[in-house]
Amino acid sequence: MNVLSKPGLLKLAKKHPETLPRLALWYKVARKAEWRGLHQVRREYPSADQVGDVLIFDVLGGNFRLITRVKYDLQRIYVKALLNHREYDRKEWMKWA
């Protein structure tokens, strides 16, 4: 998968520095992946969820959510947001779904 973009991901992690090691690992795994659907994503990340084009990953045991937009046919993942529970519950991320 082509993850767009690593600088954007690192910028999000600055707000929540405790997530940086997990996000770095996620980036490494996602970059090498050739996911064609949620069923393949869940082999690596069983708690991943999909809402429309939005693919959501739990980070640090679900304390944070990595919001991405995925285009399986183009093999692209667009990093959109890294949210804590309060931010996630506002559902503003659904604008990307």
Quickly name the level 1 CATH class.
Alpha Beta
Query: What would you say the CATH architecture is?
Result: 2-Layer Sandwich
Distance between the termini: 19 Å
- The fraction of residues in strands falls at 25-35%
Biggest sheet overview: 5 strands, mixed
As residue ranges, the low-confidence spans are none
Kindly provide the radius of gyration, computed on alpha-carbon positions and rounded to a whole number of angstroms: 12 Å
Percent of residues in helices: 25-40%
Derived structural class: alpha+beta
- Tally of distinct domains: 1
Order of helices and strands: EHHHEEEEH
Mean residue pLDDT: 94
Strand order of the largest sheet: 1-5-4-3-2
Strand elements, count: 5
Number of helices: 4
CATH topology: YaeB-like fold
Q: What best-fitting shape do the alpha-carbon axes yield?
A: globular
